[in-house]
Every structure is written in C-alpha cells, then in structure tokens.
Amino acid sequence: MLRVLPIVCHSFALTILSMAAVWGQEADKSEWVSLTDGKSFDGWKINESPESWTFVDGAFVGKGERSHLFYVGDDKPFKNFEFKAKVKCQPNANGGIYFHTQYQDSGWPKHGYEAQVNNTHGDRKKTGGLYDVQDVMDNSPAKDDEWFDYYIKVEGKTIIIKINDKETVKYTEPDDKKPGRQFTRVLTEGTFGLQCHDPGAAVSYKDIQVRRLPD
User: Fold this and answer.
1) Is 3.10.310.10 the CATH number for 33-212?
2) In this predicted model, what pLDDT tens digit does every residue of 48-85 receive, in sequence order?
3) How far apart are CA 128 and CA 134, in angstroms?
4) Would you kindly state where each structural domain of the chain is located, as residue ranges?
C-alpha cells in the first residue's frame, strides 16, 4: 500500500489541476448579451439629427441626415469581444458599425474603427470592409433588401470581420501604429456606434449582441 499511495496522490493532484484549468477556462468565457431590448432605444444615445432614427419591428432604422447611435448601456468599456448583428440595406444605403469608439455630440466618430455597411451606394468601399484600413472594394458580399449577419471580433491586436459567416477582413494592427489627427483608428477600448448618413435610403440593425473575451 505504501508503494501505491504516491501514485494515487499524484493522480489525484493531476485531476484537481485539470479541473481547475477547466474552471478557469469557463470563467474566462462570457455569455452573449443583447444590447437592445427589442422595443426601444433604451441603452442607446443618439447624437445629432435624432429624427434620422426610428424603431421599427425590433430594429433600429437609420434614414436621414448624418447621425450616430451609440451604445451607453454599460459603463465598462469593451476591449476584446465578439459582436454580431443582423443588418439590412435598402438600395444605395450607406452606414457603418463603429467599435472601440466613444460618444460624441456631433461629427464623424473620431475614435475607433468603422466596419463598413454599403452594398450598392456609390462609395466603392463595400460591406464587410474595415473602412479606410482594409476595404472590400466594389463588390459587396451582401445583397440589398435582405437581412445579413454581421460579425466582428477583436482579440489583442487582431480584427476579424465576417459577413454571413464568410471572412472579409483579418487585420492585425502594427504595434507601432499611431492615432491619426482626424480619426484615431487604433485599438484601445470603448463602445459601439451605428451610423446613418443617407437621406435617400435606410439601413436597419437588429439582434445586436456582444460577448466579452478575456483582456
């Protein structure tokens, strides 16, 4: 029995360590959290041109003069995360999804990156691109008048964008990248913002969810 005991103890210790590792992994995983209540703008804040936004059938609908809708429902900023939403564009619509951004009263958001939303607008930079950083040019992976899945992941210095589960961007920010004068376009932390700036066509956003990843 004395010879067996060390083996038993060692096996028990390995089991405990293995269980602790699993518990640690589970603790690192966050659940998907909805950023909307499906019936109002609660948790979101509109800056200029509030008349550009309406709420229709569970979706935020942007159509009108330039305006941005910022998520303000959580005081803790988002750093590493997975984000997903359903988006629909009318023909010639143009919008965007900002991340690592901050609320501001007016103007184009200075902070963070923009994930482009544009299927058939005249701007050659199309849906699924990281605006002015790694663009999808000319041909959109999504169609007008149809809901499509928009996915964004930020982990460390890497940004991944997928449209309908197809990867359109995988961008790793250089360690020495500096903020620009007009737009920072660097990874820090922040919130999300939805863009509207087209009086002639609507962009709709719904089922907006986020899952935090370990920092």
Assistant:
1) no
2) 999 999 999 999 999 999 999 999 999 999 999 999 99
3) 9
4) 1-30, 33-212
